[in-house]
Amino acid sequence: MSKMIPLLAAVCGVLGIAGAAPAWAQGKGTCGVSGQALASPTITYDPFSPTGLTQVTIPLILTRFGTGAAKTQTVNFVLTKPVGTPNYQILYNGTSILYTEGNTMGHPTINSQSAGEINYNFGGASQPDQSTPFNLVVTVPANVDLSAGNPIDFDILYVCNGTGGMADVTTPTKLSSAIHINVNVLSALQASYAGPALDFGEVGDKTDTDVTNTPIIRTGYVRVASSGPYSVNVTSQNGYKLTFPGGNPANATQSMSYSATFVGQTRSPSNTTPINQTCTRAGLAGSPPNQGILLPVNVRLLQGGQTRTPAPNYQDILTVTISPLAAGTPGTICS
Prior knowledge:
- The protein starts with a strand and ends in an 11-residue tail after the last strand.
- The chain has one helix and 26 strands.
- The model is unreliable at 1-27 (pLDDT under 50).
- The protein is an all-beta fold.
């Protein structure tokens, strides 16, 4: 007799959560700027989309420091991202102005007109203290492991000239998280069965004592990739009993008991309540279609087939439902 346990998986729903913008403090005595760039709250990013997020235009407006005649006159700046950050792209007038922190290739430089940085002259003290908008074109590549509920932030690195007695800043100065792209990252999820068939094999010659003394255990895997937390629900069609087509799981001669362990919980005929667990985000590590993590499902035969009705196939169906949850939902690390 061969014993197989087919495994099914279900996926449903997407949710999005957006964050809020930070604030920046102004300095005194030396020139400087503050900046704010916010993406439209309607922008969404699906981490499983093959196209990613392309050609999103976000206006950046700078405000210069100073009062009276002492004000920031000119500013040169670039944008930076932390080491290890995905391959984002930010263009201004068709030229990239985004660099990895610590590797800005000599940018920015006071009053430089070279490509790869932005130069802006606010004008005299009587001119507006806010710049005209810099329209930044942002691209987020496909399959980036962004966390649902978290925005995308970039830093501004600037140097500047002062006027009216305000001192220059010649050492590049950072404005942390000055560019706040409030993208709604969908709490999206993919799940699939990624293991061998859960087949106990021929056990017609095994007694209950045999399988107790020499356990017969099989392991499969459910692959989960998600940008946010998710819920797990597992049920057994026959109450964790194997039976043949047309057989009766309640009949001791027509069924064999087994146990199943998933996300740290074990079920058997003595406890058939559904496995329910809320898990933290699985992430999108790896390359498609093998992103995410593998959750092992272990099954153990509890009874042998020696006294059971002969049949070519005894089986049960485990239904595993994996569903995305709203960002911020507390959960357990499932592995």
